[in-house]
Amino acid sequence: MVDSSAAGKSAHHKRPVRLNAFLASAGLGSRRSVEALIRAGTIAVNGRMVCDFGIRVNPERDVVTCDGRRVQPQLFRYVMLHKPCGYTCTRRDPHARHTIYELLPSGMRHIAHAGRLDEDSKGLLLLSNDGAWLNRVVHPRYETRKIYDVEVQGRPSHAALAKALQGVRSRGEWLKVEGIERLAGSGSSDRFRLVLREGRNREIRRIFGILGHPVVRLERIAIGDLHLGSLQAGKWRDLTVEEIAKF
């Protein structure tokens, strides 16, 4: 670990929230299942049984109980990880040599990652147990920009790069990059900085494979306004309050 400040931990419930949302975020189940608990008369707020799952509660002031036991708000964690090559984005995989959760403390292995990087890729991953926040990061409608440094075999022509921008079809999907900047290359390979908006499964590798220039190295260096910076491969840190607020 590099920096485990308290900024990346948040109760996330400083304002009144809907009762069903609070119960779900506290780990009592999905919103649908906690609504069943409310209808069954097992939930009380400040000692009074409630049957309306839409009422609002303030977890800092109100006492919410389920079958007489107090429901505590869940602390959310927001983490940046620099994934090395050779690690898969799974919790358990009998075929994987290593998973990213080996890089995190055992108490943080319940948090989910926003999007994936394949085993042969490295770079920035964001993880959290705040599902709504993760959705803001990955859902296509938010068009979160992702930036990659990529090395490919050969020297793609201007026509090939134009095709990557216009889009190619692969396995019934339309794949394209939003921006391309050529970096320094060598005689046998070329390097680019690429921008994606959606980030489909292995999208960059599939695009350049179709163009005849297989990817040699791929590193994600930014998601939205969050950059890897000096975070070393295999290390992680909590996000600051300001960084969490960017999404």
What does this structure look like?
The protein is α+β, with helices and mostly antiparallel strands and 247 residues long. The protein has three domains: 6-70, Roll (Structural Genomics Hypothetical 15.5 Kd Protein In mrcA-pckA Intergenic Region, Chain A), CATH 3.10.290; 76-141 and 226-245, Pseudouridine synthase I, catalytic domain, N-terminal subdomain (Alpha-Beta Plaits, 2-Layer Sandwich); 145-223, Pseudouridine synthase. It is 19% helix and 30% strand. It has six helices and 18 strands. It has helices at residues 19-25, 31-39, 131-138, 158-166, 203-210, 241-245; strands spanning 9-10, 17-18, 43-45, 48-49, 56-57, 64-66, 69-70, 76-83, 112-113, 122-128, 146-153, 168-170, 173-175, 179-182, 189-196, 215-223, 226-227, 236-238. Strands 1, 8, 9, 10, 11, 14, 15, 16, 17 and 18 form a ten-stranded mixed beta sheet that branches. A four-stranded antiparallel beta sheet has the order 4-3-6-7. It is elongated.
CATH C-level category of the largest domain: Alpha Beta
Query: What's the architecture of the largest domain in CATH terms?
Result: 2-Layer Sandwich
**SS class:** alpha+beta
Residue stretches low in confidence (pLDDT < 50, at least 5 long) are 1-6
Total helices: the number is 6
The count of strands amounts to 18
Radius of gyration: 22 Å
Distance between the termini: 23 Å
Q: List the helices and strands in order.
A: EEHHEEEEEEEEHEHEEEEHEEEH
**Named CATH topology of the largest domain:** Alpha-Beta Plaits
Summed over residues and divided by their number, the pLDDT gives a mean of 88
Major beta sheet summary: 10 strands, mixed
Helix content: 10-25%
**Percent of sequence in beta strands:** 25-35%
* Morphology: elongated
Whole-number tally of structural domains = 3
CATH homologous superfamily title of the largest domain: Pseudouridine synthase I, catalytic domain, N-terminal subdomain
